Amino acid sequence: xxxxxxxxxxxxxxxxxxxxxxxxxxxxxxxxxxxxxxxxxxxxxxxxxxxxxxxxxxxxxxxxxxxxxxxxxxxxxxxxxxxxxxxxxxxxxxxxxxxxxxxxxxxxxxxxxxxxxxxxxxxxxxxxxxxxxxxxxxxxxxxxxxxxxxxxxxxxxxxxxxxxxxxxxxxxxxxxxxxxxxxxxxxxxxxxxxxxxxxxxxxxxxxxxxxxxxxxxxxxxxxxxxxxxxxxxxxxxxxxxxxxxxxxxxxxxxxxxxxxxxxxxxxxxxxxxxxxxxxxxxxxxxxxxxxxxxxxxxxxxxxxxxxxxxxxxxxxxxxxxxxxxxxxxxxxxxxxxxxxxxxxxxxxxxxxxxxxxxxxxxxxxxxxxxxxxxxxxxxxxxxxxxxxxxxxxxxxxxxxxxxxxxxxxxxxxxx
Length: 415
Prior knowledge:
Blueprint: E1 7-9, E2 15-17, H1 23-31, H2 37-60, H3 64-89, H4 97-108, H5 115-127, H6 146-172, H7 175-198, H8 200-226, H9 244-251, H10 257-262, H11 271-285, H12 293-304, E3 313-315, H13 318-328, E4 343-345, H14 349-353, H15 355-391, H16 395-414
Antiparallel strand pairs: 1-2, 3-4
Helix pairs in contact: 2-3, 3-4, 3-8, 5-6, 5-7, 6-7, 6-8, 7-8, 15-16
């Protein structure tokens, strides 16, 4: 992959220059790649404080008025812990690969997730986004219809995802990494086993209930990141949902997922600024952006209600459809709609990223090829008919046919 501050990589591996970005914007994106470990350390300390508050609230009282909020607090901490683990495997938390990996393991363990196994799958996901080699692409699953699989992800997605990471992580890992993965899962099993043996009741109350809540909440993230997106270009295979500061806080900005895939070297705290720089490009290519997770979930449910999910389509917000229609009004491309008029089908965004000039050049090349084929056919027809006429003793007819062929070529050229 070329420098993501200047180039993106298409699904075919061909670098596409961001010609519409100014030099100042490219410099801004390059500056956003600078890591500030102190910011991650402060967030990690806050994470520990929030976990301690949740656990203390559960230990000190049996009142559901206190415990229910505490359970949701711990569930949100589990979600943010996985998000921070994600930053750790990318090397964005602190300086040093080993320190990042240790922190990633500790953050992922409460969610019964091996950070090393996750990274084994995740790096392949980044390198092969929305292709047949993408281990996280739901469209590579053909044993059930897409709408059945998406319905499962929306309800029991966590219980599908965790075994997927464990199994595929081992399969995709390098030989030495497999030992690390097995050691991490053994450590997680030992911790949970000891907790259930010596304090089963408290383990269920402090860990079990928040885990069940977090599992349901995180299902929306599984759906939002890549489902109902299309692999036409780097701008169309991932979804960003800004959704305000509260949600972004608990997700550690992983909801800016398109920016993360376009610029994987940018740490979590700088992704909103990357979104601000890149946002003008998104409308031009029909990037899947939804303002909130609730808006996405509403549109997703409406699509699911149709019972038919075509492959390689991307779900757009109403605002995204309007912006794309304005762009397409100046070109000959068509906005193909589904039954519910909400998702875009087989739309080649990469061409528009190069502006309408590229589209005109493509049309011109297609016209030239068509004219060349027409001329070849005219010559073949003229030669065949002229030869047949002369063979029958009518030489003047062959000349007339040749004249008609010449006139046909001239008419095609005028068109």
